[in-house]
Write a structure and sequence with these properties.
Number of helices: 23
Strand order of the largest sheet: 3-6-7-8-9
Number of strands: 9
Structural class: alpha/beta
Shape: elongated
Length: about 550
């Protein structure tokens, strides 16, 4: 692997490391570890796995992403974005399918980094990112109603509509005590930032509600509030390492899901790193970051973990509490490891409605409703992409939403390009004002009789190729020479080449000469490979319009 592809920030920052930086990193890592604990537990349970699995993912992925990542302050771990897709994989393929899909996604992320595709985020339209992020938020919110209100439902449908139908049918079974705990948790988390930004509201809510529920059960005789211990067998310590079961048929069926995990992980991690860059005034290495994300997602399944990526909330917590280098992320992983080893049995007393309240706040923060509202004022094409992606994410699943959203975005983009690309025809006088491919000072150029000049302003791809052909058919006059100005054609695709080739051959049959003018070097190279030097003659591919008209004039005189 080339050195310029993989350059972990830890290896760069350690050269100038000192005691003051270490002190800052230790304090930040300690706080981030505490912040990450309730989130890791909540994300693990909501994804359909155990609380330990969420914490193990935060430990392993957080450690690897900090050791090998391309950002100084990025904190990795499980995130809310993966809840829906992980839950769906477990329901359909089981835990073995999830581990395989996560590994495949890790391999894809490494390949994205190796092939220097770290700028992939630039090619994902913003309405798609907001659409599926808001859709995931709504889906996460809907999955927490059972625990938030203590409905006690078993086998809740995965389908969004069916889920809410079941909720409404069973809303009479609401447990008032569970509801009070859940609502109180939401209120505590929401108001905590007004009093302190050091201690996370989720941790305060979990501590207070856990104590409250314990007292209610011990002295109040209230037993209707479920806790983690009622549903999971809590085991402190590291799990046994697992081997992947490689099955070709399962690999093929899981490939689209793994691709979704990889795309989602790349988007979220690079977004997080970009946001962090703006705050600390640094610049992350996107390719190195993707490789680190890939290594993390290949490693976590060995310990039974779930997909992980860069987490914006934890990364910002790291920055706000003085994190300077990736050492803070390493400290955060160590803190979580110590909690897993020695304090994990206490987690069995955490009430499920409280965790539901944590995820309700997470879903609210993910919803980006203000951004969503602002995008509704954009052009109709952007609104269409936004709404389609959002509703497909909510009603169907994230894989379909990303695929369909990207297809629609691409089609709308091509339509915009087609609308902005212009084709003009001139037959008498050519105005040379603001021309960039000529050096002469005259403002107008007389076109010889029998010569038509076509100018293509924009890329010559399959859409404009057909438009150009239609323009030719509309003209009834058959000139002696057609000059095609291509000085503003940045590229030409295979359909454009095919169309231009047919035009040249058809013109030759009609005894009409074709001359190309102002062809850019890259386009010229493509045309040369396609055989245009032989088709038209090298001398008929001119560098500017003066040369083209001069050749056209001589050709007419010869005829």
């Amino acid at each position: 692997m080339k050195a310029n592809i993989f350059q972990p920030k830890l290896f760069q920052t350690i050269k100038t490391y000192n005691k003051q930086t270490f002190a800052s990193d230790v304090m930040a890592g300690l706080i981030v570890g505490i912040v990450a604990l309730p989130l890791a537990i909540a994300f693990g349970i909501a994804s359909g796995v155990s609380p330990q699995t969420g914490i193990i993912t935060a430990i392993v992925a957080g450690l690897i992403i900090s050791l090998f990542g391309g950002s100084k302050v990025q904190i990795g771990g499980p995130t809310g974005a993966f809840i829906v897709i992980v839950y769906g994989i477990i329901q359909e393929y089981g835990m073995s399918g999830l581990l395989l899909a996560t590994t495949l996604a890790g391999i894809m992320l490494i390949l994205l980094g190796v092939f220097k595709l770290g700028t992939i985020i630039k090619y994902i339209p913003y309405p798609i990112i907001v659409g599926f992020t808001s859709g995931i938020a709504v889906t996460i919110f809907s999955t927490q109603m059972n625990d938030l209100f203590g409905l006690g439902l078993k086998d809740v449908p995965a389908d969004f509509v069916e889920k809410w139908i079941m909720y409404f049918q069973n809303f009479a079974n609401i447990d008032i005590w569970s509801t009070l705990i859940g609502v109180a948790s939401v209120i505590i988390i929401a108001i905590t930032p007004r009093f302190t930004k050091v201690i996370p509201g989720s941790l305060i809510a979990i501590i207070l509600m856990t104590v409250a529920v314990y007292l209610m059960k011990e002295f109040g005789g209230i037993t209707t509030i479920d806790t983690i211990g009622d549903r999971f067998d809590i085991k402190p310590g590291l799990p046994e390492m697992q081997l992947l079961s490689l099955d070709w048929e399962q690999i093929k069926s899981l490939f689209p899901v793994a691709l979704t995990i990889a795309i989602l992980g790349a988007i979220e991690s690079l977004l997080s790193a970009t946001v962090a860059d703006g705050v600390i005034g640094d610049r992350h290495d996107s390719n190195t970051e993707l490789i680190a994300q890939g290594i993390a997602n290949i490693t976590t399944p060995i310990f039974g973990g779930i997909p992980a990526t860069g987490a914006i909330a934890r990364t910002m917590t790291n920055i706000n509490n003085g994190g300077k280098t990736p050492v803070a992320g390493v400290i955060h992983a160590i803190v979580l490891l110590l909690i897993l080893m020695f304090l994990m049995p206490l987690a069995e007393f955490i009430p499920m409605p409280c965790l539901a309240g944590v995820l309700v706040i997470v879903s609210y923060n993910m919803s980006e409703w203000r951004t969503f509202k602002a995008l509704m004022k954009n052009p109709k094409s952007d609104i269409a992409v936004l709404l389609v992606t959002f509703f497909l994410t909510v009603i169907f699943d994230l894989t379909i939403a990303i695929e369909i959203g990207m297809i629609i975005a691409c089609l709308l983009f091509m339509r915009r390009i087609l609308e902005t690309t212009k084709i003009s025809v001139t037959t008498d006088v050519l105005d040379l004002n603001a021309e960039t491919d000529i050096n002469n000072k005259e403002e107008k150029l007389t076109i010889p009789k029998g010569v038509e000049i076509y100018e293509i302003d924009g890329p010559y791809f399959f859409g404009i190729a057909n438009k150009f052909e239609e323009q030719m058919v509309m003209l009834h006059d058959r000139p002696k020479i057609r000059i095609i100005r291509m000085r503003r054609v940045p590229f030409i695709d295979s359909t454009g080449i095919h169309n231009l080739t047919n035009l040249c051959r058809m013109s030759q049959k009609e005894n009409v000469k074709i001359i190309l003018s102002g062809v850019k070097p890259k386009v010229h190279e493509v045309l040369e490979k396609a055989g245009f030097n032989d088709l038209l003659g090298r001398e008929n591919i001119c560098s500017n319009i003066h040369e083209a008209i001069e050749k056209a004039t001589k050709a007419i005189e010869e005829k």
